[in-house]
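Quick note —
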Amino acid sequence: MRWENLTGPDHARAADPALFGADAVTTRTFDTPEFRGITFHEVRARSILNRVPGASRMPFEWTVNPYRGCSHACVYCFARKTHSYLDLDTGLGFDSQIVVKVNAPELLRRQLASRRWQGEHVAMGTNVDCYQRAEGRYRLMPGIIEALTERANPFSVLTKGTLILRDLDLLTRAARVTDVGISVSVGFTDPELWRTVEPGTPAPERRLEVVRALGERGIGCGVLMAPVIPFLSDEPAQLRATVRAIAAAGATSVTPLVLHLRPGAREWFMAWLGRHHPHLVRRYERLYAEGAYAPKWYQRRITRQVHGLAQEYGIGPTHAGTPRRIAEPRAEAAPSEPVQLSLI
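Predicted structure written out below.
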């Protein structure tokens, strides 16, 4: 396994400082049902604020990723390629070899205090899920949220994990002082498809319960309807069922994203497709013949359908990464005597 000279996702030069050294790695396994078969590599990272490459399509410039690898085991996960930078397998290895940056909260607190930091928006959950199962044991997110709150630094979280509800009080507190955006990823509601394509995640209906719980606390939560999987979750009736469920959960927005297949993810997904839906292999080869993304005409068709359904059900699209803020306290009109303000 290659730890030394790892500086980021672009195989940076050996002259650059490593993110962490081999002498800082502790490998652990836990003989409990939820962690059986998973190996954790605990590291002390040297940097936790990551600048997004300028050529990226992402609408934010900075991310925090306390984990590498993800036990959600989504067969389409675009982050699989990042495991190859550690000489780890991008298939089962990505699902079961989890790198944990155990010093993430203290390191973030220090970096946010730097005079060079300008308080830019920080996105989390954009590479692998920061509320995957490992977070239940390592509890890195409370310290990360507290560090951001102390500096009133705007941030957003994208997750498939229900564990985010553990930190509901911290998120509510943060939303009182800065812009906080929460999005839950629910690409489809088909239970059979979920069991095979996202085997380590909470069921879609449980994720939608997160949306509902956040809304009840006054924190608007959007849904990233991702991925829409061609020929498996893109029929009009399937799209309608998903958008209807999202609307019923009280989502503030729904933003569709069609499956994309980058190197690393593409090979793993296509192998899965060959086992479970061999009749679709040739169709996928044609649809993705030009690269990682489905053709523009297909993406536009899905976007148009989902946005039309969202309008029908009373919700609308949003821009990915847009922060959402908890409602400000306000008093009743013209009170005759002082009253206690409350969140609404």
